[in-house]
Amino acid sequence: MNMPYSPDGASVYPAGGLAPSASLGGLDLQGVIRAIRRRLNLMAGVFLCVFALATLFTLTLQPRYTATSSVIVNTQSSQVIDIGAVMQGLAPNSAVIDTEAEILKSRSLLSKVVKRLDLVENPEFNPARVPPSGLDQFKSGLKSFIKSALPGGAADDASTKSLSEEEILKAEQAELDGVIASVQGAITINRLGPTYIIEINATSSTPDMAALLANTVADVYLDNQLEMKFDATRRAKSWLDDRVAALRDEVREAESKVEAHRARTGLLSAEGSTLTEQAIRDLNAQLTVQQADLAEKRARLQNVQNQLAAGGGVDTISEALASGNISALRVQQAEILRRKADLRARYLDGHPDVIRVLSEERDVERQISAELQRIVSALEQDVLVSRERVNALQARLNSQKGELAVNNRASVVLNELQRDADASRALYEEFLNRFKETSELDGITEADALINAYAATPTGPSFPNTTLNLALGFILGAALAGLAGLIVELMDSFFSSPEDVEHYTGAPYLVSVPLLAPSGTFAKARIKPADYLLEKPHSGFAEAFRNLRASILFSDVDRPAKTVAIVSSLPDEGKTSMTFCLGRMAAMSGTKTIVIDGDIRRRQLTEVSGVPAEAGLLEYLFGESRLSDVIVTDETTGLHILPLAERKHTPRDVFGSRAFDALMTMLKQTYDLIIIDTGPVLLMAETRVVTRKVDQVVVAARWRKTNRATLRETLKILREFKANVAGVALTFVDLRRRGQYAYTAADYKSYRKYYTDD
Question: With contact defined as beta carbons under 8 Å apart, do 419 and 252 qualify?
Answer without folding.
Answer: no
